[in-house]
Design goal:
about 0% strand; mainly alpha
């Protein structure tokens, strides 16, 4: 057993719990994500495809874990194409997530301009 790896994993898991509110941390944990390294690896598009990670949750996680970054989705035609690189079962979910994120951003901007 590699104690160094377990120690690092535990420290990263504790760090994630310290930074995120419980609701956000649990949303990630339900998807098997417990370390900053995993979040960094999956950000942004793979996070958007996960259950329990909608546009608002995504933006909150992004603000807390990636300060100064703001993911702007790119609507590529290849996301609609099921034949590209064998990931067809994920593409429709990503397309919907990107559309929801764009809609949520638009609604937030409109609400902000009204206040």
């Amino acid at each position: 057993m590699n104690w160094m790896t377990d120690e690092t994993h535990d420290q990263e898991s504790a760090l994630l719990k310290e930074i995120l509110p419980p609701r956000l941390w649990r949303a990630l944990a339900r998807n098997g994500i417990t370390t900053m390294k995993e979040v960094r690896r999956l950000y942004p598009e793979e996070l958007l495809q996960m259950p329990d990670i909608g546009p608002r949750t995504f933006r909150k996680i992004e603000a807390l874990l990636f300060p100064g970054q703001y993911y702007v989705p790119h609507f590529r035609d290849d996301l609609k194409n099921d034949a590209i690189d064998g990931k067809s079962k994920y593409r429709p979910a990503l397309w919907r997530a990107l559309m929801e994120l764009q809609r949520e951003d638009r609604e937030s901007a409109q609400a902000g301009s009204r206040s």
